[in-house]
Amino acid sequence: MGLLALSLLYILTISTASGGGSDEAALLDFKARFCRRSSSSRLVSWNSSTNFCIWEGVTCSRRRRPTRVVALNLPSSNLTGTLSPAIDPPTALTVCLSYNSLSGEFPANLTSCISLKILDLDYNQLGGYIPVELGNKLTQLQMLLLTNNSITGPIPPSLGNLSSLRNLYLDYNHLEGLIPASLGKFPALQELSLEANMLTGKFPALQELSLEANMLTGEFPQSMWNLSTLRVMGVGLNMLQGSIVANICEKFPLMRFFGLNENRFNGVIPSLSNLSRLTDLYLATNNFTGSVPPTMGRLQSLKYLYIGNN
C-alpha cells in the first residue's frame, strides 16, 4: 500500500553524508516501484546510462560535492498513492507534485524539511489538517500551494511565522474556523487565496486578496481601502457590508480585478474612470443604489462588467 508515495519521499530522504551514487540508486528504486503502479512516461529518461542530474524532473545542486538532489518537479505525472508519514522528510529546496492523484493525510513529516522553499501540492486528493509545526519549522518557505485538495480543520495561526512566505494558496479545500489574525503579519506576502472553504470571521489587510465563497460577515474593514498597491480584490459570495469609498481611484491606482459580488454592500457606485488597468468589475447582487456612473464607459481595459441585481 502506498509504494509509489513511499518511494517518492524516499528519493528525497537523502543523508548529506552520502554521495551522489546514493541519490541515483534512490531515484532508480523509485522508478522501479513507479513503473509497476502507473502508466506515466515521465521517468523514461531515468536510467544509469546518463547522469541522474539531467533526468526529467530532477534538479541537483552544482555547489555541493558530491552533487546532491535538491528538487523534485513531477507535476501532472499520473502519480497515485499515499504520502506516508512513516518516511523521514526530504531535505530538498523544492517539491512540486501538483496535478497528480496523491491521497491520504497531509504529510506531517515534511515539516522537518527546514530548507524547503517551495511546496506545491496543488490539485491532489490530500486530506487531514495542516500541521501546526509547518509554521514553526519551515521558516524559509516562500510558496505554499495546496489548492484543490480535501484538507480540513482550521488554518494554524503558526503560519504567520513564515516571514519569507510570498504565495499562500489554500483555496478549494474544506478549511473551517476563523481566519487567524497572524495572516495579516506576513512581511513578504504578495498573494493569498482562501476562497471556497468554510472560513468565518474577519480577514487581515493584504496586498492581493482572494476570499470568495466563504462566510465572512461584518463591516468591510476601512483599512482595506488604504492598500494602494492592491491589484486584485475578490471578496464575492460572502455576507460583507459597507460602501465603496468615493475616492477609490486614488486608493487603488493599480487595481485590475475588483469583485464585491453577492454580498450586502450598499450606497452609490462612485466614479471608477481613473482605474485605467481595471479588467474585471463584479458588483452584482448587492444593495447598491443610484445610477450607474456615466464615466464607466471610459474604462478602456474593462473586459467583464457585472452590476445587475442591485
From TrEMBL:
- What's the short name of a Pfam family annotated to this entry? LRR_8
Assigned keywords, A-Z: Leucine-rich repeat, Repeat, Signal
Where the record annotates domain Leucine-rich repeat-containing N-terminal plant-type, the positions are: 22-61
UniProt keyword Signal, yes or no: yes
Q: Does the keyword Signal apply?
A: yes
Tell me the first and last residues of the signal peptide. 1-19
The identity of this protein, by name, is Leucine-rich repeat-containing N-terminal plant-type domain-containing protein
